[in-house]
Amino acid sequence: MSDIVYITNARLSFPHLIEPQKMMTEAGKERISYNCELILPPTDPSFAQFMGKVQELAAAKWKEHVAQVFAIVNADRKMRCYGNGAEKVNKKTFAPYDGYAGGVYITCGRDTPPQVIQADGKPIDPSNTLAYQQLTRAMYGGCYVNAAVKPWLQENKYGRGIRCDLVAIQFAKDGEAFGEGAVDASPMFGAVASAPTGVAPASLPPFMMPQ
User: Fold this and answer.
1) Domains identified in the chain, total number
2) Distance CA 140, CA 151 (A)
3) Is residue 205 part of a domain?
């Protein structure tokens, strides 16, 4: 538990909590990931605590080389789980995605569903699939959540990196949904007129007549 960081009132983005996201590993193999991104103000105490834990882990593992490793990792967004919101640019509009401008983010995930915490602070029974889906559906891009995350260090043949597990998540409050949101097409419609009485139904073509 000592490596777990509690994040409060983060803006949820790109959630893959109901159905996992299919991803490719460095080795070219497919894997699934239940993941999301958490957006926070740069001065948020939760983010400061998270980065403090990352630096603590890195110092213990990479010792006198920690500064050089951090420089390499920070230069490659694919090798770290955190960053400046300005890095998250929509490739079509060339502008930061909704909610990212002026903020920082943490990318976190795991290959099994994270623990989901109810409003009363109690976890959902993992075997209760219906309750799990009901709560995770309420976690849309743009809402606010609390989360327990666990940063960890990668060091293998694919390089050194800083990653983060999503341990648990809880809906905190509603927020303005990212993107266009649900489209309201109701102004295009009117009331359905009642069928006129006393009108004979249209005759059927011969091949549809009952034999």
Assistant:
1) 1
2) 23
3) no
